[in-house]
Amino acid sequence: MESVDSRDEEAPLVADSLQVLTPKNYTRDVHILSCAFLLIFLAYGAAQNLETTVNTEGNLGTISLGILYTSFTCFSLVASLVVRVLGSKNALILGTTGYWLFVAANLFPSWYTMVPASLYLGFAASIIWVGEGTYLTSAALSHASNHKLHEGTVIGSFNGEFWGMFASHQFVGNLITLAVLKDDKGGSTSGTTLLFIVFLGVITLGTILMCFLRKEEDKGEKETADASVNFYSYLVSLLKSITTLLADVRMLLIIPLFAYSGLQQAFVWAEFTKEIVTPALGVSGVGGAMAVYGAFDAICSLAAGRLTTGLPSITFIVSGGAIAQVVVFLWILINYRVTSGVLGTLYPLIMAALLGIGDGVLNTQLSALLGILFKHDTEGAFAQLKVWQCASIAVVFFIGPYISLQAMLIVMVVGICVSLVGILFLTIQVEKAFYSPRS
Q1: pLDDT tens per residue, the chain (439 residues)?
Q2: Which of 121, 261, 376, 403 could form a Cys-Cys staple with 102, CB 3.0–4.6 A?
Q3: 60, 72, 349 from 102: Cα distances, Å
Q4: d(CA 172, CA 41)
């Protein structure tokens, strides 16, 4: 009996030792997170592309998007603390509900459904994106630590996979839209109704998939659980989080790049499709151009993630993506004219590809940059990214109709030049003071 008992007591010890010897592999969670975001955003992204087309009465679609990104900007100020209280996994799951409600509101579009849905989606989007950045960075750091790998390389690789999968939502979503609406001549709403129902099912699948993420414990959740016992403590913690990051010279040098990343996305959605693609290819060509944009976005996200090793590599890759987009801006500003024939079709697609390259690079490298430099406050850092990014997007939606394409292009070129100066200065002057493998 004693020998049996001793074997029973030793069994848990053996299991524990095997668990210690076999470190956790976090690539599974990255696969799940990437697939879930692909499902959710292929539905939402395609719905967003249709907003200004299907909800034209009183500019309901355009105003709804402006309200959405204004709400997104405001809620991003508090998103970091919400994510700390909820935990990154719970924030991701809760965030999906905003996208579901927004698509559902499009089944009964009116001021009474779209405006509340847009306001709530602003909140949901703020926590899902801060939760994504926090979860992915935590998984990368844990994976690097467990497997004795270089942190910058793992962060870049994980972000490359995530943003590569995410960027393909434009390609997949537009194909679904094309397949469902191919026989819809625009005389009824039956086609769009079916499309939005399909999208609701896709988002539901994404939400279910998110539930299979491994829940991680981090210091932020415990700290904020104590800090949020009363409203006063909550406000103090919030103000401290914001002011600490805004007083950091590294963050100040990156903020112009945050803002530019939002500007270039809104430019593609609001100006490029309307002023360049539609005159050359017609409304039916918008889906094809955006599919090209999404395909190159996805490819370059994967490639850029594989090449990321640290701050110098990030600066080099971002500069390459910026050059690709500057070529498009200067091309349109100086020499582009709508032409007929093969070249008339080819030129907008080439521009879409170059803009997709730049967007893929920016998405991947910004996330990797924040994960490397601000890994002790990832929630706050990713909240700052979304504040500046979404504020820029909202500005484009609100002022875009009142300024010329030429003026918008000049703003884009100036913005990208200021952004590059900031990140180059960060690399040359600040890297030695702030960045080291031990930080």
Answers
A1: 445 455 555 555 444 444 445 667 788 899 999 999 999 998 998 888 777 667 767 778 778 888 898 898 889 888 888 888 888 899 999 999 999 999 999 888 889 999 999 999 999 999 999 899 889 888 888 888 888 887 778 888 888 889 888 888 878 887 787 777 665 544 345 677 888 899 999 999 999 999 999 876 544 444 444 444 455 665 666 666 667 777 788 889 999 999 999 999 888 877 888 788 878 877 667 777 888 888 898 888 888 888 887 788 888 999 999 999 999 999 999 888 877 778 888 988 999 999 999 998 998 888 888 888 887 777 778 888 888 988 888 888 778 778 888 999 999 999 999 999 999 988 887 656 554 544 4
A2: 121
A3: 13, 13, 30
A4: 10
Cα 15 from Cα 22, distance rounded (Å)? 11
Q: At residue 21, what are phi and psi to the nearest 5 degrees?
A: -70, -25
CA–CA gap between residue 428 and residue 423 (Å, rounded)? 9
Dihedral sign for Cα atoms in the order 133, 137, 139, 140: positive
At residue 297's C-alpha, the angle toward residues 403 and 68, to 5°, is 50
Residues 6+ apart with CB under 8 A from 297: 167, 168, 170, 356, 357, 359, 360, 363
Give the CA distances from residue 311 to residues 251, 346, 425, in Å, rounded to whole numbers and listed in that order: 14, 36, 12
Q: Which residue has the tokens 């093969």?
A: 342
Whether the Cβ atoms of residue 417 and residue 305 lie closer than 8 Å to each other: no
CA dist 376 and 380 (Å) reads 9
What is the rounded (10 degree) CA torsion for 278, 394, 134, 153?
Answer: 50
Amino acid letter at 3?
S
Closest CA to 270 of 53, 433, 105: 53
DSSP 351-364: HHHHHHHHHHHHHH
Calpha distance 383→73 (Å, rounded): 9
Among residues 275, 278, 311, which one has the least CA distance to residue 401?
Answer: 275
Q: What is the DSSP string of 161-217?
A: HHHHHHHTHHHHHHHHHHHHHTT--SS-SHHHHHHHHHHHHHHHHHHHHHTTSPP--
**Pairwise CA distance, residues 98 & 212, whole Å:** 19
* Secondary structure of residue 64 in the 3-state scheme: helix
